[in-house]
Design goal:
This protein is α+β, with helices and mostly antiparallel strands. Helix content is 29%, strand content 23%. It contains nine helices and 14 strands. This is FAD-binding molybdopterin dehydrogenase. GO terms for molecular function: FAD binding; oxidoreductase activity.
Length: 286
């Protein structure tokens, strides 16, 4: 869509040049920005000019973690993690990235421009990169014009439909992922009312090694991410009680599903995720 009201696009080369002036908005990939009228905007600030690294390893005592730049595209993340599929220790994380990317209601062309940070900052319940980041226990780094910064778990950054904890003057710099998340085992289930429609429920199960700790993240079905944590793989009754304990007001309502239906199918998907994680443990022990 043409944004006819725009008067210009700035391309900053330094962070000092990137802060917004009245009537401006940050441009990352633009896949959402250009999909709907923006009559209030008079200018864009193209963050691609900052040259942030897309994906980079971070050394740590327990192995390398990962940073993901906010302007990294979905396609760029897929390319960076594709080699993991051949590594037994990180193959499950590679599969998780692919499954979350495929949960997007988009073509491969959109994946070439849609960015990780942009998708998360939209605060959409069905934001596929929010699902990914929450499952990875990723932390978001937010920068302020006065030089300050703060780090917020992505699970807490998205606070509701179209709402985040990011302040208007803050810029999302990127995500940090610990090494443990990259070697964990994942199981993913998604559900939509139509074969290629927007996700109505996304449940990701994660089992860490060697601790055996388990977490289930629920997105799309709820108005903000919900994470259920367990010391080990829970039994079916413990899991059912945890899902039932999600507050009624958290279940999301829109044309893609009613709250009571979403609550029900989330329980079904959670059981399937747990069964897959249990099967993986049995297979590893055999």
């Amino acid at each position: 869509m043409d944004l006819a009201e725009l008067r210009g696009v700035r391309v900053p080369r330094t962070l000092d040049e990137a802060w917004l002036q009245p009537g401006e908005a940050w441009l990352a990939g633009g896949s959402w920005l250009y999909s709907t009228p923006q009559p209030h905007l008079r200018g864009l600030v193209d963050l691609a000019g900052l040259g942030w690294s897309a994906v980079a390893p971070v050394p740590a005592a327990d192995g390398p973690g990962l940073t993901i730049g906010a302007t990294c595209t979905v396609a760029g993340l897929l390319a960076a993690t594709a080699p993991w599929a051949a590594e037994p220790g990180r193959a499950s994380a590679a599969s998780l990235v692919r499954r979350c990317a495929d949960a997007f209601l988009m073509s491969f062309k959109v994946q070439e421009v849609a960015t990780i940070g942009g998708n998360i900052c939209l605060g959409l319940p069905a934001g596929a990169m929010t699902s990914l980041a929450v499952a990875l226990d990723a932390r978001a780094t937010l920068l302020a014009a006065d030089g300050g910064s703060r780090v917020v778990p992505v699970a807490d950054l998205v606070t509701g439909p179209g709402r985040t904890d990011r302040r208007p003057e803050e810029l999302l710099r990127g995500l940090e992922v610990d090494a443990a998340a990259l070697t964990a085992t994942y199981a993913v289930r998604t559900l939509s009312l139509t074969p290629v429609g927007r996700s109505a429920a996304v449940v990701v199960g994660r089992r860490d090694a060697p601790s055996g700790a388990c977490a289930l993240s629920v997105t799309a079905a709820t108005d903000r991410p919900v994470v259920l944590r367990f010391a080990g793989l829970p039994g079916s009754e413990e899991l059912a009680a945890a899902v039932a304990g999600i507050a009624d007001e958290r279940w999301y309502a829109d044309p893609h599903g009613a709250p009571d239906w979403r609550a029900h199918v989330t329980g079904v998907l959670a059981r399937e995720v747990l069964d897959e994680l249990h099967a993986g443990v049995r297979e590893a022990a055999a």
